[in-house]
Structures are given as structure tokens and as C-alpha cells.
Amino acid sequence: MTTREKYVIVTAAGSGTRMGASMPKQFLNLGEKPVLRHTLEAFFAAIPQIHAVVVLSAQMKEYWRNLCYTQKFYKPQTFVEGGLTRFHSIKNALKQIPDEAVVAVHDGVRPLISPTLIQRLFDLAEQYEGV
After folding, report:
1. 50 DSSP 8-state letter
2. Could you give phi then psi for residue 127, rounded to 5 degrees?
3. What is the pTM of this model?
């Protein structure tokens, strides 16, 4: 069986207005790191060679890029601008991914997913059309 390239689309374009914070929640610190970084680190821990496509609002793309630099978080990421809705954001991200790839879609403000679960889901996705 040939192993296909693995991608994760991490949606992080939301404004977080319902939370009432001065900053969207994906950029707020959980411990010493932003929530979005925790999320991405879980995927990189599970599959070090994974391709991360991060969906961000146009206003926050440069902010995130600078934050990664200042925190020395040098993991490769492709940045895609969010759309009108989550559906449109994911559609924008899918344009960056080859047809044969295995793709996960995950919310950037859900950092508590375990690398073990991520690996299990990707293993199952190699066997089945959808997981």
C-alpha cells in the first residue's frame, strides 16, 4: 500500500466576538503559547511530515506569521485567507491540496486533540474514503 501525503486544514479565521476578548481566541495564550500553536503542535507531533494549511483572516495573517517568528515556531505552514463562512474557508484551503492527499480538517481553537488520536484517524483514512 502506498502512503499518500497528509494534510491538515486548520481553520483559524474566526473573530471570536462571542468570547468578548480583545483578541480572537486562537491567538490567546494557553499556558505560554497561543491556542493555535498548541493545535498545530499536536498535528506535527502525530505526523512530523504533515502539511499544515492554516486558514486565517486577512487582518490576522501577518500577525500570526510574526507571532510564529517571535516565538521561534518555525513549522512549515501554508496560509490561506478565510472566506465568508467556514465552508468557504475550507474550500479555499482545499485548492492548495493535491487530489490524492489524505486531508483532515480541524478547528484551530480545539487544541486538546491528542497526537495518538490524530495518528489513528489518519491510519483509518488510508483504509476508508471518509473517517
Report:
1. P
2. -95, -30
3. 0.93
